[in-house]
Amino acid sequence: MEEGQRQKPKKRRKLFWICIFVVVILVVVGIVLWVTLRKKSEAEEFKAVFTSRCCCCLSKYAFQHAYVGKDPCLVPPDAYQLLVDAAPFEPACNRMMFWSKTKDVVHDLTSKRDCFITMEDTFLGTVLNELTWCSKEGSSDTFTSGCPGWTDCVNNTVRSFWSKASESYAQVACGSVSVMLNGSIAVPFNPTRYTSHNMTSYEYICDVSLIFSTNKQNCANPSLKNLQKELAQGIAYSCQEVPESQIQECALQPHKPCGSCW
Ligand SMILES: *[C@@H]1O[C@H](CO)[C@@H](O)[C@H](O)[C@H]1NC(C)=O
Ligand SMILES: *[C@@H]1O[C@H](CO)[C@@H](O)[C@H](O)[C@H]1NC(C)=O
Ligand SMILES: *[C@@H]1O[C@H](CO)[C@@H](O)[C@H](O)[C@H]1NC(C)=O
């Protein structure tokens, strides 16, 4: 009887030490895992985002082929040729929209209505939208931080991708193409941004919609003359001044035919 009573606290004490031991082991394993995973997490996270958005091995190979092992400021747009060949843009007649400095209002519209698609709504655009990636000379890793910013160098990993993607997207343009520019900035059409797309070589109609968040510029803006000049002979050009509220209204009225938005 006395033996049993004395053994109970002994057992409890044993159990207590086992618990402490297990907790200590778990903490140590946790710390080790945390340290190793943290090192890998950057690359892993990027891989996970890329893989969850995109499941095609060929695209992944072609994507990494463009920049892995290279100085992030020495990746020209053509490095992504293999990628745009592996995941080509589908022509979307009369629905293609380009934009500059009007991102939010345009994406609000394209997310709610099928009338228009921007490059960010396409497969490659969706996969890489808002991501940052780069590698280093001689490295086989992908980094998501410490990469050059958009304006730090011209041929940076991310900017070159969007440059190449815009060019390929423009190449499949057909029918009427819309360009949504910002009427509240001094130069709504910035030629350097579009010339690389070589818009001149494609035979499509260009509808330019100038969005007015504040009434500063109109269709007579000199920069729009430059846009017209860049279009090949025979390409129709028209410009409309559209208040921002009208575009927001269009986004909210799914029953309204797209053609009557503006
Ligand atoms: C970017 O790359 C292109 C193509 O290789 C090259 O012609 C151009 O000079 C480069 N630009 C800069 C600023 O390095
Ligand atoms: C136009 O540009 C201005 C200044 O960058 C910005 O504040 C405004 O939101 C832009 N308008 C649209 C419709 O995106
Ligand atoms: C643009 O395309 C036209 C017609 O295909 C071509 O003649 C011209 O050289 C191209 N320009 C550039 C800068 O690629």
UniProtKB/TrEMBL annotation:
GO terms for cellular component: plasma membrane. Its EC number is 3.2.2.6. The chain crosses the membrane at residues 15-37. GO terms for biological process: positive regulation of B cell proliferation. InterPro entries: ADP-ribosyl_cyclase. Pfam families: Rib_hydrolayse (PF02267). This is ADP-ribosyl cyclase/cyclic ADP-ribose hydrolase. It comes from Periophthalmus magnuspinnatus. The lineage of its organism: Eukaryota, Metazoa, Chordata, Craniata, Vertebrata.
